[in-house]
Design brief:
- The complex is a heterodimer of chains A (about 270) and B (about 375).
- Chain A has about 270 residues and is of the alpha+beta class.
- Chain A is built from 9 helices and 5 strands, in the order ααααβαααβββαβα.
- In chain A, a hairpin with a 4-residue loop joins strand 3 and strand 4.
- Chain B has about 375 residues and is α+β, with helices and mostly antiparallel strands.
- Chain B has one domain.
- Chain B contains 7 helices and 10 strands.
- Chain B is rod-shaped.
- The chains are: A alpha+beta (about 270), B alpha+beta (about 375).
- At the A-B interface, helix 2, helix 7, strand 3, strand 5 and helix 9 of A face helix 2 and helix 3 of B.
């Protein structure tokens, strides 16, 4: 039976020995080093994924801004999405290898009408001028007056007024959204203290930076993070681009109508020669 | 003394030295991680700034292109209208001659009233075809052109600016003019976001007939009604100048091809009438780039996060480009060059162009801007 003094003495000797201090330091350092390593690995993955998503989103938005005009479906406001899928996904899978590293990537392309007070007003004017005044569908007299007014304006401006009221309501833009789940070695909550404050708000309790924009679809100002309900889609990036117009067809104006009518009449044919 | 000796011994001994080194390394690694994070944040911010600037510039240029298409349509319409008026005037001259001829027999007994009636009818027809049509065409041209000018210069620019602001806002920027609902952005503690500022040179002189009634002598000479008198009165071949560029005395864009050292080079005249480049600058000031201080690893209090005070800038330039920038030049039977700008501005569309090229274009003049666009 060893006495207490003996135990204390042996412990003190062990602690004072070089071998013991190395073991103790090792015991301290290993978890710290491991944490740092895991930390660095997660950091790299988070930052890289975010950056690659930004690039892919912009790339797809550029393509869609050209393609949506020709292949988009204005009735459903949907992008053809072939460009989005092929370009963005191709970039992320084949070039950046983000998908392999991060699991599922969510890519979506929307082609939507530009919505601002001016387009709202001009859309209203366009509807009214074509004889369908909003809110007065059943008032035949008002419809007739509106249509006559529209025709008169069209006549005065040689169809240019119509051009304006036609183009503005059909002004469209594309929105490409990509989102990716970023797998981390440590639980994702471990990075919550890196969450950046929402503009005008507090931390959002998630990693990375949520984008802020006017949510035109919902008609209110929200943050992208609030829209992201699926916890697997941790990071979400989007990019808006205007849809580049195709060549608009010249409106058939009264001079052209008159000239084509003259051309059909035998006795007036010489007028145009 | 004993205490000092013990301290010296402890410092000199190797025991515990690893702990000190680890503490230092942890501090350095944390610092490096912070720097990495901050660099990534700045990089992402720059990318978003560029997105905002690009989309704004492109949106603005798209509206300029639409304006160009309007101008092209209107020029065509003007040409059709004026040529019709010209033809009608010719017919009116015929009716007038017939009326004068009929008036010669107006005093013939018994049948004189018939000739009188014919003369009146001819006068009426002459008035309807030549006088009224010419008068109307002149008025329509004059006022119509003004409407179009207003529409293009103001409406198109406003719509372009508006759209550009909105797109910049959607790409995580704060618009200068807040559209619609109020946002949740907090301006109380001086938070600025990405702002987009744009500028462009709208053009006014690409119309078939000049718009301004005052200004340079060339413009004064070419008032619409006077030009119409030229056509209808003289009965000569087409004499209207397509437009008078206010940037110089020359007309329109002239593209000449020269052969130099066996290579064909294209020289574009400096009097371009395409709208100038639309350049958008987006910048970020104040508290939106949240960088982490080293103590950010321990501190989760958002209010203590540091923010960049250095503004970040992104510049983007876009340009309206056209499918046909060269006015058609056809010689008529009489050898007069018909400079009808048919197709001018046809198929105008917008394109992002390198900013460096745009600065170069500014330096050299608008004609070189056209050059840069065509051969971009």
């Amino acid at each position: 039976m060893k006495s207490e003094d003996d135990i204390l003495r042996r412990l003190k000797r062990r602690l004072m020995s070089a071998r013991a201090s190395v073991m103790l330091e090792f015991a301290f350092v290993v978890p710290l080093a491991m944490t740092m390593f895991v930390f660095a690995a997660d950091f790299t993955r988070i930052l890289r994924t975010e950056q690659q998503l930004e690039i892919a989103t912009r790339l797809a938005a550029d393509v869609e801004s050209h393609m949506a005009n020709y292949y988009g479906d204005p009735s459903t406001n949907k992008c053809p999405c072939s460009a989005t899928k092929n370009v963005a996904k191709g970039y992320l899978v084949d070039f950046a290898h983000v998908v392999k590293g991060t699991g599922k990537v969510y890519i979506k392309g929307d082609c939507m009408a530009v919505s601002n007070p001016l387009t709202f007003v001009l859309t209203w004017v366009a509807k009214t001028m074509s004889g369908n005044p909003p809110g007065a569908e059943k008032n035949m007299f008002l419809k007739m007056v509106a249509k006559i007014f529209g025709k008169l304006m069209d006549f005065i401006t040689f169809g240019t007024f119509n051009y304006l009221t036609d183009v503005v309501p059909h002004d469209r833009q594309v929105k490409i959204t990509t989102a990716a789940y970023i797998p981390t070695i440590l639980p994702i909550e471990a990075y919550s203290f890196f969450s950046l404050p929402k503009r005008g708000g507090g931390g959002n309790g998630d990693i990375g930076v949520g984008q802020f924009a006017y949510d035109l679809e919902g008609g209110s100002v929200t943050t992208a993070w609030n829209l992201t309900v699926n916890p697997k889609r941790r990071h979400r990036v989007y990019c808006y681009m205007p849809v580049i117009d195709s060549v608009p067809i010249a409106p058939m104006t009264y001079i052209r109508v008159f000239k084509s009518w003259c051309a059909k009449q035998k006795f007036l044919k010489g007028l145009l020669e | 003394m004993e205490l000092i000796r013990k301290m010296r011994e402890r410092i000199a001994s190797e025991n515990g030295s690893v702990g000190v080194v680890v503490a230092l390394v942890i501090f350095l690694v944390m610092g490096m991680l912070t720097m990495t994070w901050n660099t990534a944040e700045i990089s992402k911010t720059k990318m978003r700034l560029q997105n905002a600037a690009d989309s704004a510039a492109l949106a603005h240029a798209i509206w300029q292109a639409r304006g160009m298409n309007v101008v092209q349509n209107i020029n065509d319409e003007m040409y059709e209208g004026l040529s019709l008026a010209c033809r009608l005037r010719k017919y009116a001259e015929g009716f007038e001659t017939a009326a004068q001829f009929a008036e010669m027999f107006a005093n013939v007994p018994y049948v004189g009233w018939v000739f009188k009636g014919i003369a009146i009818a001819m006068h009426v027809l002459g008035l309807l075809t030549g006088g009224s049509a010419g008068w109307m065409a002149a008025r329509i041209c004059k006022y119509f052109l003004k409407i179009i000018a207003g529409m293009y210069v103001y409406t198109s620019s406003i719509l372009g600016l508006w759209n550009a602001q909105q797109l910049a806002a959607q790409n995580e920027a704060d618009p200068l003019a807040r559209l619609g609902s109020s946002s949740s952005l907090d301006y109380g503690d001086w938070h600025f976001g990405i702002y987009a500022l744009g500028m462009s040179y709208p053009f006014k002189d690409a119309f078939l007939l000049p718009l301004e009634e005052s200004g340079k002598d060339e413009v004064k000479k070419e008032q619409p009604w006077k030009a119409l008198y030229k056509i209808t009165g003289a009965g000569e071949a087409w004499e209207i100048k397509p437009y008078v560029s206010k940037r110089g005395d020359k007309e329109g864009i002239k593209v000449t091809k020269e052969k130099k050292d066996g290579k064909e080079t294209t020289k574009v005249d400096e009097n371009g009438v395409l709208p100038g480049p639309t350049v958008w600058l987006s910048f970020k000031l104040g508290g939106n780039i949240h960088t982490l201080p080293i103590d950010g690893f321990w501190n989760t209090d958002d209010s203590k996060r540091k923010t960049h005070k250095i503004p970040f800038f992104a510049v983007a330039a876009a340009q309206c480009i056209t499918g046909d920038v060269i006015p058609h030049s056809k010689k008529t039977e009489k050898g007069v060059v018909n400079q009808r700008p048919s197709g001018f501005g046809a198929g105008a569309t917008a394109k992002l162009v390198p900013v460096s090229q745009m600065f170069y274009s500014w330096k050299k003049g608008s004609g070189y801007a056209v050059d840069a666009i065509i051969y971009h």
